[in-house]
């Protein structure tokens, strides 16, 4: 940021004095409410209906990041929320600004990310008249938000903002939209008439502590289990319960598998960790679930990509499910012991129970055998074409599993989940539930703003990257040292894979033979570009790219026909994986 | 199976939309829905009848509704001893010479004449949905010009005859 800009953004004492005595507008109250919530960064994009809000943001210490598209702004806020555990804050204008956020809001809803999204709205006097840039964003976002508001009275501004942050960041976290009509932002707030009351939401009382009797029941099952398995999901991370989780696992020596979003709950090199379960998970984890007699699910929602065919899911297991959202329990998988609780509180309660387990060493031996016998595998290309797995294995080695890694959805996402070996929590930022292309790159930007000194790597495909690459402008503007590792297979990898496997190789609209010159594109944005296409030199080049002080785009020319293996085919059970071994 | 669900909500704009939208999203079929104020200011109550396949579905419905911020309480009162009422307005073709005959049907149902035209009479009937169905069947042969029903509103009786299992959130 230039010195001039710095100056413009900071109020002088006289100006501050002036704002104290002047009657406050809704927009100014909005800024104060954000400060009360310790908001230090907003991702957004201005427009007509939010001009008053942006005017109040001017000369204000809250940092505003001007994305190049609203979708970029909201994915950046999601990335920020994922790595910090704090709500990401977004502003967009009414109409198209607001509708451009819809994908990000849905993504945050599916992956339980806390967001507070402010959308501009036309003046309440013209709402409902199809005014310029009017969209019914409250109606549109009703099914994709944890809650939403339209502010109808300036006196409600502080209360609604306080409630919005509370709802977004407690219980099962999620996005809250606050629709802010322009005339409300301009209206004069009556400070004297306003009484700051504590939050009163009789319909929102999330159960955070577990029922003692249910914990007892769970312990009884875990005590006698001969083949226990623990499935940990993102709920453990959202509750910041990594420490309690690991203590619990180590005390009883339980085997652990993760969901895609749960990666990071345990050091991936831990002896008790058997990998990610589900469609492209490890053989050991999927067999572990399939053969277990007690399955303890902590903070995972039994998503269909995890369970495969439900009728074949964990057929021998008594299921214990800990979830802060009661609606997730029993939704997909019949549950024997439901425990409605925050993961951290439930784990604390479990840790208080002093119990010994049965001897399940045979089971552990079996799991260990599966793990050693059937690891993720790939075959080097005979013609020496670079493989995506080679790239990611090298990046993982070079970053020692400590970098923040973001992805879109698809082949590169699965390869990243397989080949990165996370040591810490809150390092893995991926679009799991919604599976959003174009998520990874802006999410990396949000993560980098949250932690300027951390290594942030955006693993993207060439197709997904082209959906939100306009945010290269942010790398240029802030010289953000995000490293974009683009696995370029000149196609939509996962679509192509399914067409190869299930549609007799009819590659309908999934190939992208015409690509931009990514080096030139990088150059246009003052981003350092690399092309990597040789497995022999890949690691050294990646080292150079990662060591570069500044933003980097690496165009990795990888094998087009590579498949993600192993796989649970659609309709199959977890125990019916294909591609488990080299042929 | 049909279930009667009552939902106590904070009376805010959009809350009806949220509840019905949720039912639509989760593929529940609403048979009838009524909304109105309660004895508490700012609190409204919805009563709706849904058709569901099994108990798992209805449990999911209750849980999803309970998750809504503006929803205070959700009850499945199907298995309870309840008071259930619905109102119907029925415009029947009733030339003067047939009115006596039609009235003899109306009387046992304690229906009321609300409006009389040259050739049509509008009746009001209040009762359980089954009673209204029966009434409609009986006047159908005379010719129904127009028919409107309010949908069911209900609550639990003060004294319960027997305690039946109810789906609970936490079990």
From TrEMBL, chain A:
One of its GO terms (molecular function) is thiamine pyrophosphate binding. Pathway: Amino-acid biosynthesis; L-isoleucine biosynthesis; L-isoleucine from 2-oxobutanoate: step 1/4; Amino-acid biosynthesis; L-valine biosynthesis; L-valine from pyruvate: step 1/4. It comes from Candidatus Kurthia intestinigallinarum. SUPFAM superfamilies: DHS-like NAD/FAD-binding domain (SSF52467), Thiamin diphosphate-binding fold (THDP-binding) (SSF52518). Transmembrane segments: none annotated. Residues 25-138 form the Thiamine pyrophosphate enzyme N-terminal TPP-binding domain. GO terms for biological process: isoleucine biosynthetic process; L-valine biosynthetic process. This is Acetolactate synthase. Pfam families: TPP_enzyme_C, TPP_enzyme_M, TPP_enzyme_N. Binds 1 Mg(2+) ion per subunit.
UniProtKB/TrEMBL annotation, chain B:
One of its GO terms (cellular component) is cytosol. Keywords: Amino-acid biosynthesis, Branched-chain amino acid biosynthesis, Transferase. Its EC number is 2.2.1.6. It holds the Pfam family ACT_AHAS_ss. It comes from the Bacteria. It is an enzyme of class 2 (transferase). InterPro entries: Acetalactate_synth_ssu (IPR004789), Acetolactate_synth/TF_NikR_C (IPR027271), Acetolactate_synth_ssu_C (IPR019455), ACT-like_dom_sf (IPR045865), ACT_dom (IPR002912), AHAS_ACT (IPR039557), AHAS_small-like_ACT (IPR054480). It catalyses: 2 pyruvate + H(+) = (2S)-2-acetolactate + CO2. Residues 4-79 form the ACT domain. Pathway: Amino-acid biosynthesis; L-valine biosynthesis; L-valine from pyruvate: step 1/4; Amino-acid biosynthesis; L-isoleucine biosynthesis; L-isoleucine from 2-oxobutanoate: step 1/4. One of its GO terms (molecular function) is acetolactate synthase regulator activity. One of its GO terms (biological process) is isoleucine biosynthetic process. Catalyzes the conversion of 2 pyruvate molecules into acetolactate in the first common step of the biosynthetic pathway of the branched-amino acids such as leucine, isoleucine, and valine. Dimer of large and small chains. Belongs to the acetolactate synthase small subunit family. This is Acetolactate synthase small subunit. The lineage of its organism: Bacteria, Bacillati, Bacillota, Bacilli, Bacillales.
């Amino acid at each position: 940021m230039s010195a001039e800009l710095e100056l413009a953004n900071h109020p002088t004492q006289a100006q501050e004095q002036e704002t104290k005595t002047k009657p406050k507008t809704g927009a100014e109250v909005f800024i104060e409410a954000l400060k009360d919530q310790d908001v230090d960064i907003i991702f957004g994009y201005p427009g007509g209906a939010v001009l008053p809000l942006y005017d109040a943001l001017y000369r204000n210490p809250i940092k505003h990041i001007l994305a190049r598209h609203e979708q970029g702004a909201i994915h950046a806020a999601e990335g920020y929320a994922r790595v910090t555990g704090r709500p990401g804050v977004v502003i967009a204008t009414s109409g198209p600004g607001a509708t451009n956020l819809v994908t990000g809001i849905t993504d945050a809803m599916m992956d339980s990310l806390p967001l507070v999204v402010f959308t501009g709205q036309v003046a309440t006097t013209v709402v409902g008249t199809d005014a310029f840039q009017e969209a019914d964003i409250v109606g549109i976002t009703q099914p994709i938000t944890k809650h939403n508001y339209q502010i109808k009275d300036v006196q409600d501004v502080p209360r609604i903002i306080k409630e919005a942050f509370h709802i977004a960041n407690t219980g099962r976290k999620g996005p809250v939209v606050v629709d802010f009509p322009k005339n409300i932002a301009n209206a004069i707030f009556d400070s004297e008439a306003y009484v700051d009351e504590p939050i009163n939401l009789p319909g929102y009382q999330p159960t955070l502590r577990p029922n003692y009797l249910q914990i007892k029941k769970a312990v009884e099952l875990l005590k006698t289990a001969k083949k226990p398995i623990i499935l940990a999901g993102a709920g453990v991370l959202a509750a910041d319960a990594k420490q309690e989780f690991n203590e619990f696992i180590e005390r009883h020596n339980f085997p652990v598998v993760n969901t895609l979003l749960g990666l990071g709950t345990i050091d991936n090199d831990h002896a008790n960790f058997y990998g990610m379960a589900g469609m492209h998970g490890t053989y050991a984890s999927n067999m572990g679930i399939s053969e277990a007699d007690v399955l303890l699910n902590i903070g995972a929602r039994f998503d269909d990509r995890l369970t495969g065919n439900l009728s074949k899911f964990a057929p021998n297991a008594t299921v214990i499910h800990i979830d802060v959202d009661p609606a997730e329990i029993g939704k997909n998988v019949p549950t024997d012991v439901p425990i409605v609780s925050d993961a951290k509180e439930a784990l604390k309660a479990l840790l208080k129970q002093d119990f010994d387990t049965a001897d399940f060493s045979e089971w552990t031996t079996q799991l260990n055998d599966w793990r050693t016998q059937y690891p993720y595998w790939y075959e080097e290309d005979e013609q020496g074409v670079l493989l995506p797995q080679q790239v990611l294995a090298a990046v993982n080695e070079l970053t020692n599993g400590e970098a923040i890694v973001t992805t879109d959805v698809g082949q590169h996402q699965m390869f990243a989940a397989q080949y990165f070996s996370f040591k810490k929590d809150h390092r893995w930022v991926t679009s799991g539930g919604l599976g959003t292309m174009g998520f990874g790159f802006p999410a990396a930007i949000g993560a980098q703003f949250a932690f300027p000194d951390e290594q942030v790597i955006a693993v993207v495909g060439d197709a997904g990257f082209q959906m939100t690459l306009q945010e290269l402008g942010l790398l240029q503007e802030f010289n953000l040292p995000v490293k974009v590792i683009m696995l370029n297979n000149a196609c939509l990898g996962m679509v192509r894979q399914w067409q190869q496997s299930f549609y007799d190789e009819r590659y309908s609209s999934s190939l992208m033979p015409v690509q931009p010159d990514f080096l030139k594109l990088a150059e246009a944005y003052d981003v350092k570009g690399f092309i990597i296409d040789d497995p022999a030199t890949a690691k050294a080049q990646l080292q150079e790219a990662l060591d570069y002080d500044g933003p980097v785009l690496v165009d990795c020319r990888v094998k087009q026909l590579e498949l993600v293996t192993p796989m649970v085919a659609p309709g199959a059970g977890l125990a019916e994986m294909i591609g488990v071994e080299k042929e | 199976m049909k279930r009667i669900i009552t939902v106590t909500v904070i009376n805010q704009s959009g809350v009806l939309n949220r509840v019905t939208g949720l039912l639509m999203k989760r593929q529940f079929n609403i048979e009838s829905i009524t909304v109105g104020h309660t004895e508490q200011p700012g609190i409204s109550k919805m009563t709706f009848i849904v058709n569901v396949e099994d108990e798992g579905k209805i449990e999911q419905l209750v849980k999803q509704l309970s998750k809504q911020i503006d929803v205070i309480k959700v009850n499945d009162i199907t298995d309870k001893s309840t008071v259930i009422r619905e109102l119907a307005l029925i415009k029947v073709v009733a030339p003067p010479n047939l009115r006596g005959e039609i009235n003899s049907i109306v009387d046992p149902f304690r229906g009321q004449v609300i409006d009389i035209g040259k050739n049509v009479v509008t009746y009001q009937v209040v009762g359980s949905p089954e009673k209204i169905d029966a009434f409609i069947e009986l006047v159908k042969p005379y010719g129904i010009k127009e028919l409107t029903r309010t949908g069911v509103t209900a609550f639990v009786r003060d004294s319960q005859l027997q305690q039946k299992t109810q789906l609970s959130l936490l079990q």
